[in-house]
Request: fold
Amino acid sequence: MKVCRIIALLALLLVLAWLVSIPLVVAQNVNLLQNPGFEDGITSPWQAYYGTLGLTSDPHFVYNGDFAAVVCTEEPKSWIRQVVPIQPGGAYTFSGYAIKNDNNISAIFLRISFMGGGVLLASYDSPPLTGTSDEYRPKPLDSPWSISAKAPLGADSARVEAVLNLVSTATGPATAYFDDMSFTGPPPTPTPTPSPSPSPTPTPGPSPTPSPTPSPSPPSSPAPVVEGDVVINEVQYDPPQSGPDGDYEWVELFNCTAETIHLEGWQIRDNCESDSIPSLTLPPHGFAVIAATEEGFYANFSDFAGTIVFVEDGQIGNRLSNEGDRLILENSQGRVIDALSYGDDTSQNPHCPDVAAGHSLERSPAGGEFVGNSEPTPGYGLSPTPTPTPTPTPTETPVETETPTISPTETPAATPPGGAAPESSGGSGFSGTALRGVGIALAIALFGILFWVARLRGSRK
Reply:
């Protein structure tokens, strides 16, 4: 009788161990995508590139729920993308379902691109879906259509993309359908940063005593930035590279004022999409460059040493059109600070003529009228540009001695920030380790109890 009770107890322990393991596994498999099944409509987390993104409610093209995504394109390659914050060193899996029933499409695949500070660190592709079928794939008995990869140290986000490749002999627009996308893995850790709690502690009693002093204190607040204070000073929308050249595009900003201007919450947009400008400070009469990608920009300007930031999604707007487009700079309140259009887009003032590939549109002097420039100068103006500089530069010798003195001090100061970048921490599979520890402990305990039961039964005989 006792043996039966012990066996029942062991069975109960095994069931409890299985139940305990479930939440540990589920905690690791969190879908980090927003609107993964497109049930909320076509919202901003999903963006289409070189194609259009729409919705369908046709039951034949919906895998689950009420809606699915429809991607249409006539370009050789098109994709939809969502950018997701991640944890460096974490293990991630991107999966989904697709219908490829168009002979104009050669293959559909999934891609994970890990980014760190706007720089591409690593990219991974899934096996492609080829052939045509009117049903969603993978089918229930098929292997999952997915790609799994570990985020490198220093990664802070992942671009997850579903990519369409068209055949070279496409006879018209191509269409594909997507539903139930999933990107699982550990969420980013920077959420627990409530360090500003010590701020209320410095509230001593003597603070109310200096109450009579505020009478002679004039409140000084920075003047609001108005239209024309910061201008789009130069843009290269048609880089010298052939084929798709969006990775090489860049825009230069110029501070026309004698005050430092902080660009926090500012945006730049073309005729389709807008991009948040990473936190940026423009010194008085200073320049800064906003580029699509680090690799693309430095491929053409390897000796650049000025201020530069890179847009998070790797392209300015929806990639600037070489035939005609617009650029609009907005502050954090959505107020237009500067704008221009060029080529066959005449919507903005000024409207600039089209320039040849490899050239740029640049204001000459800085903040002045636009001209075509065959030798782009990102980060500084054309030779007659800096109006404030020629005025205080006399031909005296002391000014020349000051210049070499300043240049060596700037070089060491610029070196440490570059070297201080690789600060990252990995580690994501803690719950998996805990689960393995629980399983091992239970296995050892089970073995010991079974051994004890066997000994007990042997002694009774």
User: Anything to note?
Assistant: The two ends are 15 Å apart (CA to CA). The CA atoms of residues 17 and 439 lie 7 Å apart.
